[in-house]
Amino acid sequence: MDFEKLRHRMVDEQISRRDIRDPLVLAAMRKVERDKFVPAEFRNLSYGDGPLPIGCNQTISQPYMVAMMTEALQLKGGEVVLEIGTGSGYAAAVLAEIVRKVVTIERLEELADRARALLAELNYDNVTVIMGDGTKGCPSRAPFDGIVVTAGGPEVPQSLRDQLKISGRLVIPVGACETIQTLLRVTRVNEEEFTEEKLCGVRFVPLVGEEGWPRGRHESWSDPRFPTMW
Ligand code: SAM
Asked: Where are the alpha helices (DSSP H) in 73-157?
């Protein structure tokens, strides 16, 4: 398959034909080879318009969703960004094409190890993959210009608010139920004040952790062969 051709078609038809306009985001989506982040058995579907299974009951998000969340961070280049939910490492690679430094946290060791190895193999030397509970953020590397959470939690974790720079943006799916959320952009106005914008409705896999959903009941949320969540 001509993956390069399919990737450009993906950007033309699924990303820029919708509402994504940021040239930095469009260029990054044209460059990062999503097929490298997709398990071999689904590789022919790499440039389709949906999420795909990556093992451990988790998904690589829909390309449009990655583009939309990246654009929502309002990046200019040169920033330091924290991602929660490394998964395959694909969204981290997209961010790494735009910003100076990406720190990404994954709670599942198998996924963290796989993404770390793949990102190193692809020469993304501005990405650090950490295994742990991302709801607590990464205090040792804070503050961040942007934080993006690619799993849905019950509320905005206070630790993540605390680790935003003044005028930094946090993009996160939040919902009272584990599988349906509203995508929020939280902007830090000053030490104490934050503004909140509702961007759209989304369906992400659960954010499991101390400031997310409790562990256990969310471990198996759907048939991993047919992911319906981002
Ligand atoms: N950004 C990923 C990509 O590009 O492939 C997709 C991420 S997937 C939709 C969500 C990920 O969040 C899963 O890998 C899941 O294990 C992870 N996750 C859930 N709760 C987490 C937490 N508290 N800390 C870190 N990762 C978490």
From this structure: 90-96, 109-121
pTM reported for the whole predicted model: 0.95
Question: What does the pLDDT read at residue 94?
Answer: 98
Phi then psi for residue 135, to 5 deg, are -65, -15
Cis before 143? omega within 30: yes
What lies within 8 Å, CB to CB, of 118 at 6+ separation is 36, 37, 88, 89
Q: How far apart are the C-alpha atoms of 95 and 72, rounded to whole Å?
A: 12
Round to whole Å and give the CA distance between 203 and 227: 11
Pocket test for ligand 1, best of 58, 60, 135, 148 (most atoms within 8 A of CB): 58
Atom 12 (ligand 1) nearest CA? 85
CATH class given for the domain over 3-202: alpha beta
**184-212 tens-digit pLDDT:** 999 999 999 999 999 999 999 999 999 99
Q: Where are the domains of the chain?
A: 3-202
Q: Is 87 in the pocket of ligand 1 (CB under 6 A)?
A: yes
61 catalytic? Reply is yes
CA of 151 to the centre of ligand 1 (A): 6
**Shortest-distance Cα residue to atom 19 of ligand 1:** 207
